[in-house]
């Protein structure tokens, strides 16, 4: 999985040299679920990852145009998980209690999706605005009574909002900032829109957890950056901001919530230095550690493919569970198609009746899983394992077993 001669690129944050450490091969758009009748050629790109020698920001070597990823038919809805609904409601209440406390507070969310976080803000009677360029999920948020602007957040759109609505006390984003290669425009937009004492709060998958769990499927077209506290601190400093707080989160396989404020406006919490010290001690941002991760990914690829081929030879029936965006990385890297996994069960109506990106495995409604004649279920939605296994207890009681590949390939019976 490593490259003897390393390709190099230019860092999208500091302009330094990016050195490639992992190549996950030819990959499709992770959320582009096709119908069986489509004849248009499928879009593929080279999914390779590198690290900046200067600011340590881990990033994709190749950018996919944002319009290809976030569009009218974007199929992911944040409110699809009860766990995530609670997470966002709790997050909103906390922001309302600690930051949006003035006489007429204003909360802005970048990438509000179907409005699962902003609903709590709206119910509290607080002024709000969501940015969401993906048409159907934005429409779902508007149907819930939320104010949503159907644009990408960048400097020009942020200035327009400042002119019409005034400064924001909180700018928030979840699983969005890591999607955006043009970070400097985002930070210029934050600078234009944020009140002098306001905060920019965002949460995204954490590089440290990805390495510790070998959760390589967190790497796909939409995840352009893999943040660490050290790289976020450098990114903030390059744009006149300061990393003033960090918080480890259990959701989505391990995330960190970063809080940025204008440089000098707040005293950084002790846990910022503590997390960076932990990263230094474990070598999270070193090329040697990233190379070891690439080797571990190769082992998972080989082990998973071998297990599925053995089960097929034994006549076992295998289906997938969770047609997640990250499952595209797994299936395409490992060459997993309908010959090894007959179908994938998923709760999202927009994906049902379609085919998985690149490998074209049929997607079926999750409520059909209970009646499926399946011996093994390959759990692509491993970050929701507890929630899913509690829901599907009958499967294990009937003798079914779950296949998981994070942090290594194993079977849970």
UniProtKB/TrEMBL annotation:
InterPro entries: Methyltransf_Zn-bd_dom_put, Methyltransf_Zn-bd_dom_put_sf, MeTrfase_14, SAM-dependent_MTases_sf. It comes from the Bacteria. It comes from Catenuloplanes niger. This is Methylation protein EvaC. SUPFAM superfamilies: S-adenosyl-L-methionine-dependent methyltransferases. Residues 11-70 form the Methyltransferase putative zinc binding domain. CDD domains: AdoMet_MTases. It holds the Pfam family Methyltransf_23. Residues 250-407 form the C-methyltransferase domain.
């Amino acid at each position: 999985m490593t490259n003897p001669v390393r390709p190099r690129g230019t860092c999208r944050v500091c302009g330094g040299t990016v050195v490639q450490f992992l190549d996950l091969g030819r990959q499709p758009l992770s959320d582009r679920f096709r119908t069986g009748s489509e004849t248009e050629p499928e879009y593929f790109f080279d999914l390779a990852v590198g690290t900046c020698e200067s600011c340590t920001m881990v990033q994709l070597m190749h950018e996919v145009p944002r319009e290809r990823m976030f569009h009218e038919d974007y199929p992911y809805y944040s409110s699809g998980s009860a766990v995530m609904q609670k997470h966002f409601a709790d997050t909103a209440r906390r922001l309302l209690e600690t930051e949006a406390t003035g006489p007429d507070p204003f909360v802005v969310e970048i990438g509000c999706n179907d409005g699962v976080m902003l609903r709590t803000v709206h119910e509290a009677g607080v002024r709000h605005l969501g940015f969401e360029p993906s048409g159907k999920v934005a429409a779902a948020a508007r149907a819930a009574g939320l104010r949503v602007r159907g644009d990408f957040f960048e400097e020009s759109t942020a200035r327009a909002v400042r002119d019409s609505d005034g400064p924001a006390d909180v700018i928030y984003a979840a699983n969005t900032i890591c999607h955006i290669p043009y970070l400097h425009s985002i930070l210029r937009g934050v600078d234009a829109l944020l009140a002098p004492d306001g905060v920019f709060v965002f949460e995204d998958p954490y590089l440290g957890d990805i390495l510790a769990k070998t959760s390589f499927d967190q790497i796909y077209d939409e995840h352009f950056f893999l943040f660490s506290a050290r790289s976020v601190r450098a990114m903030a400093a390059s744009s006149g901001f300061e990393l003033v707080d960090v918080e480890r989160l259990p959701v989505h396989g391990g995330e960190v919530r970063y809080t940025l404020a204008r440089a000098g406006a707040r005293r950084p919490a002790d846990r910022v230095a503590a997390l960076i010290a932990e990263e230094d001690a474990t070598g999270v941002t070193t090329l040697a550690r990233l190379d070891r991760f690439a080797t571990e990914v190769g082992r998972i690829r080989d082990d998973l493919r071998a297990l599925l081929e053995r089960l097929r030879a034994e006549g076992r029936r295998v289906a997938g569970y969770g047609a997640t965006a990250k499952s595209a990385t797994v299936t395409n890297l490992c060459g997993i198609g309908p010959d090894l996994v007959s179908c994938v069960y998923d709760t999202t109506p927009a994906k049902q009746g379609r085919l998985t990106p690149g490998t074209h495995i049929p997607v079926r409604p999750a409520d059909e899983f209970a009646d499926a004649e399946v011996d093994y279920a390959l759990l692509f939605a491993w970050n929701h394992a507890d929630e899913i296994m509690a829901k599907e207890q009958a499967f294990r009681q009937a003798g079914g077993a779950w296949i998981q590949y994070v942090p290594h390939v194993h079977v849970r019976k």
